[in-house]
Known about the structure:
It holds the Pfam family HTH_67. This is SalK. This protein is mainly α. It has helices at 8-21, 27-35, 41-50, 58-65, 70-76, 80-83, 86-110, 113-126, 135-141, 149-174, 179-187, 195-202, 206-218, 230-246, 248-254, 256-275, 281-284.
Amino acid sequence: MTTLPEHAVRRCYSVVNPIHSTVYFSPEIGREFAAAGLDAPAAVYFANRAAPLGRVGAGAVTATFYNFKHDLVALHVPRIWETLSPEEALGVRLRAVDSLLRRLLGEDVLGSKELAEAAELALRAAEACARPARPLYAANADLPVPREPHLAFWHAATLLREHRGDGHLMALTTAGLGPLEALVSHTASSQGAAAGWVRSSRGWSEEEWAAARGRLRDRGLLDDAGGLTASGEKLRADLEDETDRLDAAPYEHLGAAGVSRLTELAAGLTAAARAAGAFPAQIFAKR
């Protein structure tokens, strides 16, 4: 087994994942799905992310997405598949990603040897991802790899994201953090997105959010102001360490030199995407 530098897995993932995540905030995804008949933001999100699973119902989406309220999921799933099939949704998603990355990165970057190298490295890392107990990764792993380097890199970033995410849900469950407790504790950390946006986009009420805060306070994980206590900080840190452990295989497979190079290349691509406005500032502003 390859020995990687401390936190190399997390550093690499943290610059690869944003390339995948750009799609959730892009006007391109909304336009493409609206043209296909879906325009509600939640419906678009569920169709976009759940399509690799096939024609699943609300239960499967709630289970695999973890932190969305089931009532919100059930409003849209499986009804979205009456508007377009999962196979059609996958085509819509890829068209949106193509337009999005062309806008964010520009044609020179898309045609560069560096992007092709990043795609090759990320795909090589994904070779060591494991299907068992990782349904979102496994579903995406069954999809063909796109030929164009920018789409191949996005596909590989998706594989690495969902592989880590599936493992993270294992860690959350072991730590006794349900969907709301996971969201509340994460938004209370220095890494979390704005609590109001997270709550509303996942379908939870203010009352449900407040109740989850109370449960975390009772466990000594939140203080009266809603911030993490020392115990809460330790729990979140332990969760990330455990997620790193569960997610180590692809990066060990790539090796220390490959991980370092992928981190370097992906950091440049992510920086370019951020500079081009890939992520709305208000979503990550604490309030």
